[in-house]
Structures are given as structure tokens and as C-alpha cells.
Amino acid sequence: MSVPLKMKAIGFTQSLAITEQKSLFEFETNLPELKNNDLLVKVSATSINPADAKIRIRNAKDKVLEKPKVLGYDAVGEVVAKGQGVEGFEVGDRVYYAGDVTRMGANAEYQAVDYRITSQAPKSLSDQAAAVMPLATLTAWEALFDRLRVRPEEKKSLLIIGGAGGVGSITIQLAKQLTNLNVIATASRPETEKWVKDMGADHVVNHRNLVESVREQGIQHVDYIFNVADTKGHWDAMVELIAPQGMISSIVEFDGGINLSALQGKSAGFVWELMFTRSLFNTDDIQKQQDILFQTANLIDAGRIKSTLTTTLHDFSVETLKEAHQRIESGASIGKTAIKY
Description:
- The protein is α/β, with parallel strands linked by helices.
- The protein has helices at 50-58, 127-131, 134-147, 166-178, 190-199, 210-216, 235-241, 277-280, 288-301, 318-329; strands at 6-11, 25-30, 38-47, 75-82, 94-97, 110-114, 118-120, 157-161, 182-186, 203-205, 222-227, 242-250, 269-272, 309-314, 336-340.
């Protein structure tokens, strides 16, 4: 495949409401230069995540960026070139990945990505169905096994606060497929209740009266809590529900403080999960993300894990990406939205 010198990308230089004309705009730029360990990928599909909206809203609040920031932290595409040091990939391979938040994202025709956080895409999925998986899957897998340190054989309980979103949906599936956990997930509407049950949740509870709803299921305390919705808003409920010597993990940052000492009596722990940590700090175990994505592709192709795709938008354009951002900002989305280029 011949690779052009220039490409189309969509980004922002100011943090504006998504309805504003310049909240996202198209521009032409050079193809990214390949560093050691990089793959150059021709992007065929991406998906929208809360991270896209958060970065767009916060990164240029009181300034104008010199260069447009290009978002997009899920992608499927074809490898068209390789940098020095790449192992296990060839030109023509179909790959999927979440990428690196410090680099140009997938809202462009081509993207450079470190091969160590990239894997062959699931063969059984379309581009759009595969594109919704990497970021949420890496987040869920790391939370379960690296942060909460769940042991697959133990028969304990897991409460997922925010069960119907992208991360919650895949966390339910991974927990049911790879562990012996009793999985409790929050949902508050008939359609979200049905969704989390379809994902495999053993119990569905309502986040609006969380403690009472969990205990109505005959569950006094839970061993693990994974919060993907609202850390501060559910803090008191989590403190009440967590079992002695239990563990809480969250992906949702917040302003102000919480009473961390409230966990002391139970010797319970709290740990953050951010799937960009390994690429941000080039950790010694960065390649674990490739392994997670590889194992997930095998689980998908074996029919044990299903894509969380619910909506596909078509065409790589400003209008399509703005629609995707509006969907994620609504806070009411079920599963994931993909954009097919």
C-alpha cells in the first residue's frame, strides 16, 4: 500500500461546548513520524469514550493550543509501516488498540502506535465491533487483576457501579468468564437492567438507593467494588458496603476530598485504575497490554466474550464525531458507539 505524505485529522485548539462550531474541526497535517517500536496504522474505525469528552473539555479551557489536539483512544486498522524494534507484526496485519493519551489519537486517517500496546484484532468481529473493545477491556482487566488483585479461583463478590456503560459491560463479562465472582451491577432503567443481565450479571441493583438495593438481594457486604460512574457521589455507600479487608477501585476522578479514613476500621483499600498509566510512564510491564488484548481477541473469537457495540456512526467527519461526543456527554448511553471511517 502506498502511503501519502499528508493526511486528514480532526481535533481542537480550545475547550468549547460540543455544539460550538470550532469545538472540533478538520485540518491537514503530516503523517506521524515513526519512533522505535511504532506501527503506522491506517485507521478504519474508532469509538468514543468518556476520556475523549473529558480531554476536549479540560485541556484548553483557558488557552488556545498551538497545535490541534487529536483525540480517539480506540482503533482498528491496517498496519502500513513499521519502525525499528517492532516484533510480531507485519505490514497488512489488522490490529486493534487503545493507544497513548500523550500522542495523536485515532481521529485521523493514520496513527502511530507502540506495538507493545497493540494486538491482532479479533477475526470474528467487524471493524466497528472490534473498535469499541480495547480501552474498556484494558481498563476492566487491569482493574480486576492488577488493582483489585482478584484471584480467579476465589468465590467472592464484586459490585460494579455503572454496569451498563462500556467499561461496566466488559467488566461483567470478564468477571463471569475468568473468575468465580458473584457479580452485582447497577442499572436504573428497564433497558439498562436488561443489558447488564445480558452481559451476565448475577444481580442487578439500583444506584439511586445503593445500600438498600444491595441488601434487598440478601447481600450484606461485598468483597470488591469497581466504580466506573461516580466515586465521590457513591463514597459513603461504598464505605458501608465494602467487606472487612475488601478492596475498592475507581476510574472516576473528582474535585474536593473524601474521607479515606472511613475505610480504616475495615482495613479496606482504595486504588485507582487508569489504563494509560503503562504507556504514560513506559513501565517495565507495558507489553502486558498487548497480552491482555491478545487474550481478549481469543476469548471473543471463541464466543466467550461479545462486543459491547450498540451504535455505529458512519463517515470520518466533524459532524459524525460531534454526534459521538454528544452521545457520550449525555451520560445515558448503553454499551459503546463506534465510528466507521
